Amino acid sequence: MDVRSARGVRERSTVKSPEKREGPSGRRYAQIAAEANGGAGHPDPVAHATSLGYSEEELNTVPADAVMSLGCGTPVARARLRPGEIVLDLGSGGGLDAFLAARQVGPAGRVIGVDATLEMVKRARETAEKAKVANVEFKHAPIDRLPLDDCSVDVAISNCVMNHCAEKVRAFREVYRVLKVGGRMLISDLVASGPFSEAALADEVWGQWLAGAQSKNDYVRAIEEAGFQEVTVEEEAAFNMAENDERLRGRIVSIGLTARKK
Asked: What is the reported pTM?
């Protein structure tokens, strides 16, 4: 299936799958799911995905309806998944990373996508059913209350979601709980790097996130407090969407990190 035939999806300038759904950003995320493939004039989801580092070749391997990433990186590319592994996608959205992971782990493996927005979960389930992808499932739940058993997954991935969790240590502890001993976590996310103006804090799209944004050091510390070891920031770059806004330029950073449960 050629993803270039997929119609655009109206997307906001923030990130995928906020865990705190109240207010404008939560309603906007649900609207994205409802309006996906909504017609001409909406930003091209393939162009956005390729700008993050996804190749058109790999996008062509997943259902076209799943190509609606609002992420800030490519955690699956860094995960080096192996056949037979069980993968948890935290804040799975439309399912792009989950479907990519499902191909890599193969029929002996399994991918579980979890998202706190019901509209996104319904959409991802419909996409999986339509594409007949049997080794992926999607569950409706918040990250700090995962519907999974202790020590039940090999790998946890997340693409620009954990920064929205109000209680980050609690959320990371929950991820730590469901990972097997020796399991690994691969995250792409946003951190703050500097003070923000009153205008930025009052912005309808960015304001809610900025109010609780963490620095890179605080973000890493939350992961370590949750019990993870070998926390390593592997990638760090300015977030392109923020660079287009002079109020945010140089103050929002995209990072890619890994951590392990020992």
From this structure: 0.85
Separation CA 261–CA 141 (nearest Å) = 23
> What region does 227 belong to: left with phi over 0, alpha with psi -120 to 50, or beta?
left
147-169 pLDDT, tens per residue? Answer: 999 999 999 999 999 998 989 99
For 26, residues 6+ apart whose C-beta sits below 8 A from its C-beta are 18, 20, 117
What are φ and ψ of residue 166, in 5° steps? -65, -40
Which residue carries 């190749």 as its tokens?
A: 55
Angle, in degrees to the nearest 10, between helices 23-35 and 118-131: 20
More confident residue, 28 or 13: 28
Measured between alpha carbons, how far is 129 from 13 in angstroms, rounded to an integer? 29
Whole-angstrom distance, CA of residue 62 vs CA of residue 76: 13
pLDDT of res. 194: 80
CA distances (Å), origin 43, targets 12, 24, 177, 184, 222 = 10, 20, 38, 34, 34
Domains annotated on the chain, with CATH: 3-260 (3.40.50.150)
DSSP for 166-228, please give it.
SSHHHHHHHHHHHEEEEEEEEEEEEEE-S---HHHHT-TTTHHHHHT--BHHHHHHHHHHTT-
SS3 229: strand
Pair 171, 161: CB distance under 8 Å: no
- What SS3 state is found at 31? helix
Higher pLDDT, 47 or 37: 47
Higher-pLDDT residue of 43, 244:
244
